[in-house]
Amino acid sequence: MPRTTTNRSDVAEAHSLTLDVRRLNLACSGATSTALELPENGGQSFKGEASQAEQLQEAVTGQPLRAVVVSIGGNDLGFAKIITACTKVFVNPYGGSPCAPDADKFVKQRLPGVRQAAAATVADVKTALERAGHEPGSYRLILQSYPSPLPNAARVRYPGEKYDRLTSGGCPFFDKDLTWAHDDLVPQISSTLAEAAHEAGAEFLDLSRAFEGREVCAKGTRHADLDHPPTGASSEWMRFLTTLQGQTQESLHPNRFGQQALGTCLTLQLQQPAVDHRCTNTSGKGPADMNLAPLA
Question: What is the value of pTM for the model shown?
Fold first, then answer.
């Protein structure tokens, strides 16, 4: 990943599309909804850049437009704060207890605001596009969710809540927190974003289970070494938690294989009619072998 303040990857989802189209990636690491919205609605510059809705309007004025994809909500929720709190209780030398009970209360309090912010963001994107000369219905507008970064406790390859989860795996979480994050937190976020998409008149792409079996510390995956180079079929698709290699903010975000998988999901979405879909992977296969099914 290039060392820029925006942390835009050269294999980001937009660049991993396999369609013969021009693409523009305005995503910015750490952005909340205010970094996307129009200024008159509270949008603000972020990391030295104008709001993404403003940038989008300027970029597509007088240009053909096929689709716009929005990914928002995790930073409004405070996902990084939640994960940090869960990590701290695991590594507490005086003994800690699972964060899930308190974290779940925090999440439930904030999710209504996340839905409202996501819907408002999509509405501002539509306004920006209309100002750029693109009428509703002339392009695809897709709001997507997030893949789970962690497996549940039954599928973690480091049993026993020992420190090898931190030192070897980069997944320092209690069993209860792993299961809560996988089984409850990510589905709650996804459902909230689906509601926002429907409220704002956008398609919804559910990615919550796109990395199933490829999460950090999931059984069936392994870290690369001299004898086992990284491959999309055997490696994790999420960046493990680290403070020693790369930037800490990259932790629990899609790595190269994960970005390629998301690019495949989006390619499949754009090849299908404009309805809600769920994207999943194929066991034992790489990022090019993703599956799309209508979301019931």
Answer: 0.94
